[in-house]
Every structure is written in C-alpha cells, then in structure tokens.
Design a protein that fits this description.
Helices cover 92% and strands 0% of the residues. The protein is mostly helical. The chain is rod-shaped and about 50 Å long. It starts with a helix and ends with a helix.
C-alpha cells in the first residue's frame, strides 16, 4: 500500500510540473488517502504483534 501511495505521489508531482492541475490534485488526494490507510494498518499491526 505504501508503494501505491508513493506511485500516486510521483504521478502528482509530474502532473503538477507539466501543468495538469486537476490530475495533480486528484493523484495527490489519492496518495494522501492511501498513506493514511497504510499508517492506520501499520499501527494496528504493531499493536497486535505487541499484544501477542
């Protein structure tokens, strides 16, 4: 999931550099959502492993 987040971030940066604002904004939003989902799942996994 972190890989997909980084991929969308790179797409957003390239689109912003080339002047495609709508695509850049959408890709950045998707990257942000995927990053937070990854972060939440990572923290849950850490707590589950610590409890075992």
């Amino acid at each position: 999931m972190l890989g997909w987040s980084i991929t969308f971030l790179v797409v957003a940066l390239i689109a912003a550099f080339l002047g495609f604002g709508g695509i850049a904004g959408t890709a950045a939003g998707i990257a942000k959502i995927l990053f937070f989902v990854f972060l939440i799942l990572f923290v849950i996994t850490l707590f589950r492993r610590a409890a075992s």
